[in-house]
Amino acid sequence: MKFFSRLLFVGLAATFAISPALAQTYPSHPVRIVVPFAAGGPADIYARYIGQRLQDALGQPFIVDDHPGAGSVIGTDIVAKAPADGYTLLMMSNTHTVNESLLLHKPFNLLRDFVSVAPVNYSDLVLVVHPSVPANSLKELIDLAKSRPGKLNYASSGPGTPYHLAGELFKTMAGLDIVHVPYKGSSGARTDVIGGQVQMMFDAVTTMAPQVLSGKVRAIGTTGKSRSAVLPEVPTMAEAGLPGYETTIWLGIMAPAGTPTAVVEKLNAEINKIVRNPEVKAEWSKQGAESMSMTAEEFVQFVREDIAKWAKVVQVSGAKAD
């Protein structure tokens, strides 16, 4: 027993000794950031933004690898099964915290199979309609939907995404019968709303605001507590007639469970430097996104609380994975 106790002590001592050294040498080769959403959406855009700046700071390529499908499950499962060495990271969003209660048979558990590294940013959503829809306000849209039950459609980037749950929350709070049309990613959904194949969509302000400002879609309401600085003329959903309506999309970085603490802390520190940079904050604010900065420990608690929050929304709204 004494022999095995010594072995255990030596092993633990070696682990703690190696950890700081590992942080000094990490990364020694390219790092992959898996985005489980389609190219052109907020997760893809900000993964590339963060990846480029991590590359500049740490001297190795951070390569963005998009793997959309199954409401983010396909790409996320790739990371869950990857070696826990810090060289495969996940760009995640509150899609993942929603899916913990919406998709009960997925092959991974967020808090069990991943370690929280750092949040990135959050932004409001905006409800838009195609110009052919005869509604210029939230009240007019609700009245139209109630006069045509089951006839109006709303697009999303897939089951469990913030766009999907924003639509389900809208249906529940306004008492509407509108049909969910899920896509593999936000780009396809956005394209079809702009083209008039689908009547409406909740989308991130960061990606839809240019389409609103160019007149390709009509903005009905934004989903934050206060008006968006990017679309100041557009009322919030609460202002426009749905008191209490509020939702956002947020992004963060995770890694496979078991990733060395020293690597997690190094990535957390570097990402926090990026998101706290005044120039980055100003640039993102112009796009409609606000930086988020936390320690790794604070971020895992944030993720845990968000899972609980969305579980209640899924239950109340009756949202399904279609």
Characteristic key phrases:
D-Maltodextrin-Binding Protein, domain 2, globular, 48% helix, 322 residues, 2 domains, alpha/beta, ten-stranded mixed beta sheet, 13 helices
The class by helix and strand makeup works out as alpha/beta
Strand content: 15-25%
Which radius of gyration do the C-alpha atoms yield? 21 Å
Order of helices and strands: HEHEHEHHEHEHEHEHEHEHHEH
Briefly note the CATH topology name of the largest domain: D-Maltodextrin-Binding Protein, domain 2
Total of helices: 13
- Average pLDDT confidence is 92
Task: Please give the alpha-carbon distance between the first and last residues.
Answer: 56 Å
Q: Can you tell me the residue ranges where pLDDT is under 50 for at least 5 consecutive residues?
A: none
CATH superfamily of the largest domain: Bordetella uptake gene, domain 1
Rough shape?
Answer: globular
In the CATH hierarchy, the architecture of the largest domain is: 3-Layer(aba) Sandwich
Task: Characterize the main sheet.
Answer: 10 strands, mixed
CATH class of the largest domain: Alpha Beta
Helix content class:
40-55%
Would you report the number of β strands?
A: 10
Taken together, the total number of domains comes to 2
Please tell me about this protein's structure.
By secondary structure, the protein is of the alpha/beta class. The chain folds into two domains: 28-122 and 249-317, D-Maltodextrin-Binding Protein, domain 2 (3-Layer(aba) Sandwich); 124-240, Periplasmic binding protein-like II (D-Maltodextrin-Binding Protein, domain 2, 3-Layer(aba) Sandwich), CATH 3.40.190.10. Helix content is 48%, strand content 19%. It has 13 helices and ten strands. Strands 1, 2, 3, 4, 5, 6, 7, 8, 9 and 10 form a ten-stranded mixed β-sheet that branches. Strand 1, helix 2 (42-58) and strand 2 (62-66) form a beta-alpha-beta unit.
